[in-house]
């Protein structure tokens, strides 16, 4: 086919194909629009392309249906006129499908049938068919509310990139790509689920209960009060949990599940061993097969970071909370600032930290939640150091502290990180909790 | 769950069925993404049933339904926050009218059967491309990776495939 040189026709066909694929640049869409408006022949070509694409898709769906059909399906009696193609051979290939349908013979036979009764029967059957088709469509459960990056929806055998506003149906699997985040909201209620990067979650509905199966990754959910007897069910490789109305975060890796509950309570049951455990608000639990699940206290103000300011003359002058690891310095006098708290890595791996700040800036990181074990991993005094790298585990929180001192201007800083396989971003509050002096340290 | 089709809606469903391909084409020409076309078409069907009371049966159904289809498709695009860069309403209607002239659903059923026959006349490689693109609904980018070709080369190949199919369909006139 490639031996034929391109012609004007080729160019316009290509333009039409690109338009229908959504890849035609906006300027060319206008050009195509103008040509279609004034050129009837071109409209005929475009209409033909549209018809081809629609009917090719239908042929593909018929092929898939045939492939799923039982090979032992009985041959129809010769005196019965088939109203839809039902060839006996099950195959998904183009040639086998089109051969087995034998369209011409079917039409010849259809013409022999009494026309009026045939049409009436066809109309009734198609009417019921459309109603049944509408009824049998997987139920719309939710709608995609926000998307940063890429989210793939796996629906049956199909995979496609999602966009905000897309309906999510029962049985859909949602897969976020590296460096992507997405959230969806259930229809008719305030339940909202946020997925972090590299997460694979299936949404379903069983006997009126919402069902979320987390194969991989992390999601956070705010669950509105559910009807009696229809709690939200969560399933991971290691555990099952039941929720009737709460705010929580669930993380699943190959070896462990971590649940953190911010409001309400969640009952969690290890799939294969151990009794169920009620996790009240402000607590978290790690579920690792073979190990007892123990409640761990969470900070009540997860999502923020403690910022302390002080001057040499008067000591600590102010305490506040930051929603992310960034401070503009607005409203403070020159002096020192310290932002500290706990870092909650979304997944295990090597993290690079990048600091920018006014004056003298230092970054300290512990190998656990214990501040006493923190060590300085980066300093602005070292001109060679562009960034610091640390190996972190997803199931653990780490004490982190950024110190910034400037005698001539307000202390301002930004701490960003590059997550494993991700891009450089400011550390959002989702991955932080403020320093809690009263917390038990391990 | 009991399935009920209200009598008043029966005519609406019948008309949607009788104009199914043209309505699908109208939606496809605006929404374009084949996966969203399905969702939008079910929304269009429900909208037609919902607005059936305002339909004047003395007027042709096609343009009225295509107007609703355009409205629903554009609303869905807006709801999805997508930039609307589709052909304008006049061109979409001209295309719908062009397709309507191709015939009703029995003609399109026959068109599909002839298309199936024309597919068999394509080369093995071209048939494989059609299968992957339209049967398996792979995007050009996925297809390019699977075939180890650039998307540009694939567009050239599909241009030839659709031209060949169009010529074949013209050579095989519909059954009178």
Roughly how many Å apart are the termini of chain A?
Answer: 69 Å
**Measured on Cα atoms, how large is the radius of gyration of chain A?**
30 Å
Using the CA coordinates, give the radius of gyration of chain B.
Answer: 18 Å
Helix content of chain B: over 70%
β-strand amount of chain B: under 5%
CATH topology of the largest domain in chain B: Rna Polymerase Sigma Factor, Chain: A
Average pLDDT reading of chain A? 75
CATH architecture descriptor text of the largest domain in chain A:
Sandwich
> What is the chains' assembly state?
heterodimer
CATH C-level category of the largest domain in chain B: Mainly Alpha
Low-pLDDT segments, ≥5 res of chain B: 1-6
Q: Give the H and E element order of chain B.
A: HHHHHHHHH
Number of strands of chain A: 29
Mean pLDDT of chain B: 84
Q: How many helix segments of chain B?
A: 9
Shape label of chain A: globular
Number of strands of chain B: 0
Structural class of chain A: alpha+beta
Strand content of chain A: 35-45%
């Amino acid at each position: 086919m490639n031996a034929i040189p391109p012609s004007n026709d080729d160019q316009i066909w290509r333009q039409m194909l690109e338009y229908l694929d959504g890849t035609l640049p906006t300027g060319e869409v206008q050009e195509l629009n103008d040509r279609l408006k004034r050129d009837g022949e071109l409209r005929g070509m475009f209409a033909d392309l549209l018809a081809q694409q629609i009917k090719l898709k239908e042929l593909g769906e018929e092929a898939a249906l045939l492939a799923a059909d039982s090979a032992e399906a009985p041959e129809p009696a010769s005196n019965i006129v088939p109203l839809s193609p039902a060839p006996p051979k099950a195959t998904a290939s183009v040639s086998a499908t089109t051969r087995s349908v034998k369209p011409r013979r079917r039409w010849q036979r259809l013409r022999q049938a009494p026309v009026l009764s045939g049409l009436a029967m066809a109309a009734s059957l198609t009417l019921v068919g459309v109603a049944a088709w509408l009824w049998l469509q997987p139920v719309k459960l939710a709608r995609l509310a926000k998307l940063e990056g890429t989210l793939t929806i796996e629906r049956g055998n199909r995979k496609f990139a999602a966009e905000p506003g897309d309906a999510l149906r029962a049985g859909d699997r949602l897969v976020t790509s590296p460096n992507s985040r997405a959230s969806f909201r259930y229809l008719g209620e305030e339940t909202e689920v946020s997925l972090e990067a590299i997460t694979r979650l299936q949404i379903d509905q069983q006997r009126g209960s919402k069902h979320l199966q987390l194969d991989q990754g992390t999601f956070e959910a705010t669950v509105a009060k559910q009807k009696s007897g229809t709690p939200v069910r969560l399933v991971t490789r290691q555990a099952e949990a039941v929720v009737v109305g709460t705010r929580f975060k669930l993380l699943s890796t190959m070896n462990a599940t971590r649940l953190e509950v911010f409001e309400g309570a969640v009952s969690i049951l290890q799939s294969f061993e151990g009794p169920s455990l009620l996790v009240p608000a402000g607590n978290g639990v790690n579920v690792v097969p073979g190990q007892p699940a123990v409640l761990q206290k969470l900070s009540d103000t997860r999502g923020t970071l403690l910022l302390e300011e002080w001057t040499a003359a008067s000591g600590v002058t102010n305490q506040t909370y930051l929603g992310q690891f960034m401070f503009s310095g607005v409203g403070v006098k020159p002096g020192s600032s310290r932002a500290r708290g706990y870092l909650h890595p979304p997944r295990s791996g090597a993290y690079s930290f990048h600091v920018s700040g006014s004056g003298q800036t230092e970054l300290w990181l512990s190998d656990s939640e214990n501040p006493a074990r923190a060590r300085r991993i980066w300093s602005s005094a070292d001109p060679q150091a562009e960034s610091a790298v640390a190996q972190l585990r997803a199931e653990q929180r780490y004490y982190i502290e950024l110190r910034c001192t400037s005698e001539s201007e307000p202390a301002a800083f930004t701490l960003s990180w590059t997550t494993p396989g991700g891009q450089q971003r400011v550390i959002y509050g989702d991955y932080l909790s403020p320093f809690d002096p009263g917390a038990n340290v391990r | 769950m009991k399935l009920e089709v209200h009598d008043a809606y029966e005519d609406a469903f019948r008309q949607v069925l009788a104009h199914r391909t043209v309505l699908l084409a109208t939606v496809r020409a605006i929404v374009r993404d084949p996966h969203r076309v399905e969702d939008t078409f079910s929304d269009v069907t429900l909208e037609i049933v919902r607005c059936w009371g305002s339909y004047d049966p003395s007027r042709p159904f096609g343009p009225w339904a295509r107007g609703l289809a355009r409205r629903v498709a554009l609303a869905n695009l807006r709801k999805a926050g997508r930039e609307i860069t589709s052909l304008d309403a006049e061109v979409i209607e001209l295309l719908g009218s062009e397709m309507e002239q191709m015939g009703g659903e029995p003609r399109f059923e026959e068109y599909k059967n002839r298309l199936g026959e024309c597919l068999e006349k394509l080369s093995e490689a071209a048939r494989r491309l059609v299968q992957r693109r339209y049967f398996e609904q792979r995007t050009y980018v996925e297809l390019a990776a699977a075939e180890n070709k650039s998307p540009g080369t694939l567009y050239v190949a599909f241009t030839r495939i659709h031209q060949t199919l169009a010529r074949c369909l013209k050579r095989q006139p519909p059954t009178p």
